[in-house]
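Team,

Forwarding the record for the chain on the shared tracking sheet. I've put the sequence and predicted structure together so nobody has to dig through attachments.
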Amino acid sequence: MKDGTIYIFAAYKFNSKYYKKEHLEMAIKEAIKNAQTTLRKKFKDLTLQFIEQKQIQPGEYVGEFIRNSLDKAMITIFDLSDREPNVTFELGYSLGMAKYRFARQDGYDILIQCNKVNPRDTISDLLGRFIVLYEYSNSHQKDEYKKIQRKIEGELKRKIGNLLEDDRILKRLIWRMYQEDVYVICPYIPPEDQERYGIRSTLAEYGDFNTVYEVCTFLKGVLNCNVKYIHSEEAKSIRDLLNNNIVIVGGPMWNKYTGEIMDDDEYDLPYKYNWSPEEDIEDYIQNKITNEEYYTSKKRKNSKEVITKDYGIFAVLPNKYAEDKVIILINGITSAGGLGVARAFTDDEVSHQNCKLLVKNVGLKNYFITLVESDIRWGEFAYPKKIKKSWIFSYDQEKNLWSNRRA
């Protein structure tokens, strides 16, 4: 659903004694159409797509089509009126998938049933679950299906509204990947700099490793991705590297891949890093549109300067080398700021609020870039803040245009 499309599948008996198949299908299609119109007022670019059973391809095994459709669908409608074995099997499959996909017991299934069904005939294992009862009495009346449609439409609006505020789903929408291969590229720290900064570890050559660990753990644990982390020197030897999903960690001073993306005229990012290899010259991030500048904040503690606030950039961009793949930038003015950027979209309630704000302002399809501010405690522990609406720029790929909805 990274393209903003939610697929909907429906399971029901074709020859029911409670309804006409044609009426139920009309009710489902019209409910989906109306729900999409209403929900688009809140969720820009949302598309609801009904998977019709007539879409089975010639020679395709029906069971395989059903299973693939259930795997693809985020919302599934089950009519339980007839206690049809195929329908109950498919419901069981969907409930099992919910634990895997949503980490919740019941997923986002919609259970419906004709109110003429004897309550004693309701499937006992489903007692206690919410089942929508609909009226249907005269199959010869032209608009009889609307009684079913209104019930389904109300549940669709409620379930999809909840789905699009589900933390895991929000993060899939923001990161635009799920169950995919991804390379995480971090800076390379050469031996002389390892010695200079007192880095002593078997992972010493991997810069910003705290951020790398945060990102890799999130990608594997939440987005179920196959992740491989490499530093910028190792990346040179990987053939077709840029034809994959790429997460680039670290600022342009240490990671050349960050510099290449931020200086690319095709992307023409609205934020710019101003940095110098000279330690006495302060690095900062500049908003190229407003010319605002963002610096770290520091205080003296035990005769040393300690960073107390840092800024960084989080960007999800189209991969111009591979269609349907993304390039993600995660970096800060310092390493602590970069860790704060990662946590702003992976961990805790702040990340949930940030993802909700991005979906509201950017929509479900556009790419984006945003500034992130983090409090830095004890000089290294990053606590990101909620991002500001005025910091978010959305990217229209067709027009190659950045836009900002300022508060």
